[in-house]
Write a structure and sequence with these properties.
- The protein is an alpha+beta fold.
- The chain has two domains: 168 residues, Ribosomal Protein S5, domain 2, CATH 3.30.230.10; 115 residues, GHMP kinase, C-terminal domain (Alpha-Beta Plaits), CATH 3.30.70.890.
- Helices cover 32% and strands 28% of the residues.
- It is built from nine helices and eleven strands.
- Strand 1 and strand 2 form a beta hairpin.
- Helix 1 packs parallel to helix 2 and helix 2 packs antiparallel against helix 3.
- The longest helix is centred in the last third of the chain and has 19 residues.
- The chain binds adenosine-5'-diphosphate and the ligand N[C@@H](CCOP(=O)(O)O)C(=O)O.
- Catalyzes the ATP-dependent phosphorylation of L-homoserine to L-homoserine phosphate.
- Keywords: Amino-acid biosynthesis, ATP-binding, Cytoplasm, Kinase, Nucleotide-binding, Threonine biosynthesis, Transferase.
- GO terms for molecular function: ATP binding; homoserine kinase activity.
- Its main location: cytoplasm.
Length: 292
């Protein structure tokens, strides 16, 4: 039997919802899993993601680690595994590749156990990253609001307004989420926290019902400026787009720039040299499984 798991990329934060908002995007990794008599074989296939040479093919592969974790949680043992990973989501660009890999592995564990995905899958997946925004989006699809109570992760899925057409500008350069989290301060001024509270509350309304409010709703003071030294060209592009009235933000921990448009294109005259610009519709479904 072959289990095929299709998992969407995601964009986190959406400007004002640091570690809270996520949105699934229609760019998918596909992972095929087969159970064998013994051993582990991992094949990593570039399906558009670019250079995959740094990705391991042993037990340290992220999908394998998440699959093993889910199998332990679900109390099943698997004698051997063949894994074929077709990677389309570029790595270390702020499009949630690591969360997608973890969600694929967890979903594979549930598939092998013959169990439907439930709330515990989010917990298992979010534990890998320490925040649930990307994982919830890849798991549930649509627009998610994620939060943590103690060590428990939660998320609510909302449906984005149908007029929203996300466009991403992906640079060639990479930046590791772990490193850019290190650029964030331990404390922020109270006025910035209040600013963030107003904009993130507004963003829930803007994304679901009032796209005309997206520009104000995506303003951020908690993370993007602090991370600018890691990817100045991305921040420059984001600011150039915002100066034209586009609701542009840094996608996740960067360096991709996300524009929440209603046109599916970026305005003429903005210099996008060094970026691949593509429209990525919202994925409303989240992770899916096919058994053959
Ligand atoms: N499909 C995948 N298979 C295996 N490892 C992956 C996969 N996707 C991401 N990773 C691992 O996660 C790293 C990128 O994670 P991260 O820095 O959080 O960036 P991103 O914004 O792309 O999630 C990669 O360098 C790789 O080690
Ligand atoms: N909220 C996180 C999101 C990281 O997303 P990624 O796609 O860059 O891994 C953060 O901003 O650190």
């Amino acid at each position: 039997m072959k289990y095929t798991i299709t998992v969407p990329a995601s964009t986190a934060n959406l400007g004002s919802g640091f570690d809270t908002f996520g949105m699934a995007l229609a760019l998918h990794d596909v992972v095929e899993v087969e159970v064998t008599g013994s051993g582990l074989a991992v094949e990593v296939i570039d399906a558009g993601a670019g250079d995959m040479s740094g990705v391991p093919t042993d037990e340290s592969h992220l999908v394998v680690r998440a699959l093993r974790r889910a199998c332990r949680y679900l109390d099943i043992s698997v004698p051997g595994i063949v894994l074929r990973c077709h990677n389309a989501i570029p790595h270390s660009r702020g499009l949630g590749s690591s969360a997608a890999a973890v969600v694929a592995g967890v979903a594979a564990g549930y598939a092998l156990a013959g169990k439907d995905i439930d709330g515990s899958a989010l917990q298992l997946a979010a534990e890998f990253e320490g925040h649930a925004d990307n994982a919830a989006a890849s798991l549930l699809g649509g627009f998610v609001v994620a939060w943590q109570s103690g060590s428990t992760y939660h998320a609510e899925r909302l449906v984005p307004h149908s007029a929203i057409r996300p466009v991403v500008a992906i640079p060639e350069v990479r930046s590791a989420t772990e490193q850019t989290r290190g650029l964030l301060p331990d404390r922020v001024p109270h006025r910035d926290a209040a600013f963030a509270a107003s904009r993130s509350a507004l963003a829930v309304h803007a994304v679901t019902a009032r796209p005309d409010l997206l520009f104000a709703a995506t303003e951020d003071r908690l993370h993007q400026d602090y991370r600018e030294p890691a990817y100045p060209a991305s921040v420059r592009l984001m600011r150039a787009l915002r100066s034209r009235g586009v609701a542009a933000v840094i996608s996740g921990a960067g360096p991709t720039v996300l524009a929440l448009t209603t046109t599916g294109i970026l305005p003429d005259g903005v210099d996008v040299a060094g970026f691949e610009v593509i429209e990525l519709p919202v994925d409303l479904v989240g992770v899916r499984l096919c058994v053959s």
